[in-house]
Design a protein that fits this description.
The complex is a heterodimer of chains A (691) and B (145). Chain A is α/β, with parallel strands linked by helices and 691 residues long. Chain A has 31 helices and eight strands. Helices cover 62% and strands 7% of the residues of chain A. Helices cover 77% and strands 0% of the residues of chain B. The chains are: A alpha/beta (691), B mainly alpha (145). At the A-B interface, helix 13, helix 14, helix 15 and helix 23 of A face helix 2, helix 3 and helix 5 of B.
């Protein structure tokens, strides 16, 4: 995570000979580096994660759509004798704490009191981004503005007088191009300067109208006597704005101030004929407009903007959905058909490896463990590595291009019709990779009801762990129709998510869905480096699982399949057989025999384990073994069951930690199990009637 | 400035490619329903759907281009990118399939294998690339950022 400053000596001892300074320091150790804590904040999709990666050398997930930073991330850089400790905060438009994202950022600034806050501002959209700056200023933070995307601003004919901007805002303004790593050293210099006090940062405060200022002053006087920990002006403004968290805080020590604030708010709202939020926001924007008018010039306006051109088509009322389906289809073709060569190649290699182990290991038990356990189990999962990587490559390409935000916009209308929030689209799309970050990404949804609802349905989106199960079964049972069968799983997953949301909304939550605002980032050509990095970060997660839990499960399942001693391997008398047979009666109507049941039980740990278990119980050549115990109809029913039933232990744990409710967690697990069973049964029933 | 844009050529491109994709798309769907195969045009229901979508993208721009509205250029421009993307994808799939047959299954590369794998969209790839270059050099560079 950490990165030494360029030009400094390496810590490698070989360099002592040519680096007397380091040798000297080894004998007379210098004072420990001064630690400077820096909060990195900004509006969603401003390039915050990219800048954070540039500052820390980290490889945090970056994409061209808002809302990927769902929790604090930390990284370190050493600069001019100081240890710069960066904390990447979730992207947010304001700090009103109306969503968990905002709350995380606000609590960090207020409670951790970082030495410096870097507020990343989009140079091509200064007016909107300065709102957050003014909120930070009211919180008493020492701010440095990183004026990012300065290249895009220039390309759009926007000229910014940075010196004047810095003077008007009362804080250092450093221009950066995060994607190219430009301006990073200036930014680090400014951080050290502000933290050590050699560079001043006295952010400008909004001077509200006379009445508002008077109300703030009255409250501030009382607050100062009771609360010292937080800036009194900020508390006063938040009290006027009826901020629930601040009211809770103040009511503990001085309940009389709350009543006073309520009176003042009422008076102001009556006088202005507007809500207090509007009064405060309008006055903030008035100052922003003034600053922007004095510092920004527009030089020439182009006729065509590529982003507008593409949006004209992809957001077209009639074309948007067909284009989206076509793109989804392209992802499937890319992951399923384009990866064929690599998949077949890996399968071929595992066959050679199994033959080699079988013929060359003299000890029968060890040979069985390696061929029937590890190679059969692990091999049946690893063979899908190319598909997984190709899927992530395609998804990363779309993310970096900026299309994901459009997908969210396109589906907002549909989301609302089924009772979900527009912002639910992002967790649902993230779920295609892994359900754990999908559940965590619901933090960006302001309304608790909308959030719980999204959490309940997010696991229905087929994650990458279920992907190998689908590929295997679709490939074996549906031949040339495999890709369409695969697509049907994804469509069914989304359709069920919508249906369940609609039902739960009707039964439990009858409130109004909060409005949806999403920023449309400009389209950009994804760089090969960036999408490869994303592919690797996500794909390596699959590899790690294969090397850890799946490897372990291969051994456990092999043990259960070969014990007690003397039983037929994977036979009905083995422990695995006993487990499977004890529940087989439940799954008979679905056409699943005890081996499938055993695989599904182990699948609770992680979905890849279903294939792993089948590989061990049926032998490596599943293409020949599976058609003997499943028909195409029961294979499709199995796919449906795997699609719907509880994704994995990690997702259950995340749902529990995000909802803080065992009741809700158990509800999700239970409804998914029941729904999986019912739908699989329906598939078998209807399938048998038709075919 | 608007007079410099060749609306006539853009309209021609939209109609020609729109019709081409519409015909190919319909054929692929009909063949998929009938379960038939003919050289260069596979029976591919979803492929047909994609082609009809591409055709629709081209056709949507014609009205605006006829009205000399510069924004109408968005449709043939995006349609070309869209078609080109799918052509590239089909080419990749063809190469992967041929590599599997010849390298892993040790089959000899014959004209029959090639004809089995190639599809008409791949043949459109070079033409689409030229059209995209024309859009880039003659329209976008002059009138965009």
């Amino acid at each position: 995570m950490s990165r030494k400053p360029s030009g400094k000596c390496s810590s490698n001892s070989k360099f002592y000979l040519i680096c007397p300074l380091r040798f000297f320091r080894k004998i007379f150790p210098a004072k420990p580096a001064r630690k400077i804590v820096i909060g990195v904040i900004g509006n969603p999709n401003v390039g915050k994660s990219t800048l954070f990666n540039e500052l820390t050398g980290a490889k945090q997930y970056v994409a061209n759509w808002p809302g990927k930073t769902v929790e604090k991330k930390e990284g370190i850089r050493f600069w001019k004798g100081c240890e710069l400790h960066f904390v990447d905060l979730p992207g947010t438009y304001s700090l009103s704490a109306s969503s968990l994202d905002e709350l995380v950022s606000r609590e960090f600034i207020l409670n951790e009191k970082p030495d410096v806050i870097i507020d990343i501002v989009d140079a091509s959209n200064l007016e909107r981004h300065l709102y957050l700056f003014l909120e930070l200023a009211e919180m008493g933070a020492r701010i440095i503005i990183a004026l990012n995307k300065i290249d895009i601003a220039k390309a759009k004919g926007i000229q910014i007088d940075i010196e004047k901007l810095s003077k008007l805002l009362g804080t250092p303004v450093i221009s950066t191009i995060a994607t190219k790593g430009e301006g990073i050293s200036h930014l680090c210099d400014a951080i050290v300067g502000v933290a050590l006090g050699t560079i001043k940062s006295n952010p400008v405060l909004v001077k509200y109208s006379k009445d508002v200022e008077e109300a703030i002053r009255l409250l501030e006087e009382k607050i100062k006597q009771k609360i010292e920990k937080y800036p009194s002006r900020w508390i006063a403004i938040r009290l006027l704005l009826k901020d629930r968290d601040v009211i809770k805080l103040v009511s503990k020590v001085a309940p009389e101030i709350i009543k006073e604030a309520e009176k003042l708010t009422y008076r102001l709202e009556k006088k202005y004929g507007q809500s207090i939020e509007t009064i405060i926001a309008e006055q903030k924007y008035r100052l922003i407009e003034k600053i922007v008018s004095e510092t920004v010039k527009y030089v020439g306006h182009p006729i065509l903007d590529i982003t507008d051109l593409i949006d004209t088509v992809v957001l077209n009322k009639y074309l948007a959905i067909p284009i989206f389906i076509s793109i989804l289809w392209a992802i499937f073709l890319f992951t399923f058909d384009a990866a064929t060569f690599l998949v077949e190649g890996i399968d071929f290699l595992f066959e050679i490896l199994a033959d080699f182990a079988r013929n060359n290991i003299p000890n029968k038990l060890i040979a069985s463990l390696i061929t029937d356990g590890i190679i059969a189990g692990l091999g049946s999962v690893l063979v899908f590595v190319p598909n997984i990587f190709f899927l992530f490559l395609a998804v990363s390409f779309l993310e970096d291009s900026g299309y994901f935000a459009r997908a969210a916009f396109i589906f907002d209308r549909i989301m609302r019709k089924v009772g979900l929030h527009g912002k639910s689209v992002i967790p649902l799309i993230l779920g295609l990779g892994c359900n754990v970050p999908a559940v965590m990404a619901t933090r960006g949804i302001e309304s608790e009801e909308d959030r719980l609802l999204t959490i309940a349905v997010a696991p229905l989106v087929p994650c990458s762990a279920r992907f190998p199960v689908f590929i295997l079964l679709a490939g074996i049972f549906f031949g040339k129709m495999a890709a369409i069968v695969m697509l049907s799983m994804y469509l069914l997953g989304f359709a069920l998510a919508f249906l369940i949301a609609l039902i739960v909304r009707k039964i439990f939550y009858k409130g109004i869905i909060s409005p949806f605002i999403i920023e449309m980032p400009p389209y950009s050509k994804p760089s090969l480096k960036s999408i490869s990095l994303h592919m690797w970060i996500r794909g390596s997660h699959f590899l790690k699982k294969a090397g850890g839990i799946i490897f372990l499960m291969s051994i456990v399942i092999w043990f259960l399949a070969s014990m007690p001693p003397g039983v037929e391997f994977g036979g009905p008398g083995s422990y695995a057989g006993i487990i499977g047979r004890s529940l087989e009666f439940l799954f008979k109507p679905l056409g699943f025999d005890w081996r499938i049941v055993t695989a599904l039980i182990f699948g609770f740990v992680a979905k890849e384990v279903v294939i792993d278990s089948l590989g061990v119980l049926l032998g490596q050549n599943l293409e020949e073994a599976l058609p003997q115990i499943l028909t195409p109809i029961s294979a499709y029913a199995l796919m449906v069951f795997v699609l719907i039933y509880t994704p994995c232990i990690a997702t259950i744990a995340t749902i529990r930690s995000e909802t803080h409710s065992w009741k809700w967690t158990l509800f999700v697990v239970a409804y998914e199990l029941i729904l999986a069973y019912l739908l699989a049964f329906l598939v078998v029933f209807i399938g048998n009637l038709i075919f | 400035m608007h007079q410099k844009i060749s609306f006539g050529l853009s309209i021609t491109v939209s109609i020609v490619f729109g019709l081409t994709y519409l015909i190919i798309g319909c054929l692929e769907i009909i063949l998929a329903i009938l379960g038939l195969n003919i050289p260069l045009i596979p029976h591919d229901f979803m492929g047909g759907f994609v082609n009809i979508t591409t055709a629709a993208i081209y056709f949507f721009g014609v009205k605006e281009l006829l009205n000399q509205d510069i924004r109408g250029i968005a449709f043939p421009f995006f349609g070309t990118i869209f078609g080109l993307g799918f052509s590239g994808l089909y080419l990749l799939i063809m190469l992967s399939s041929i590599a599997t047959k010849t390298i892993i299954y040790n089959e000899r590369l014959t004209t029959t294998i090639l004809l089995e794998e190639i599809r008409i969209e791949i043949l459109l790839l070079p033409i689409l690339a030229i059209v995209l270059l024309w859009f880039r050099n003659h329209i976008l560079r002059k009138f965009s950022y």
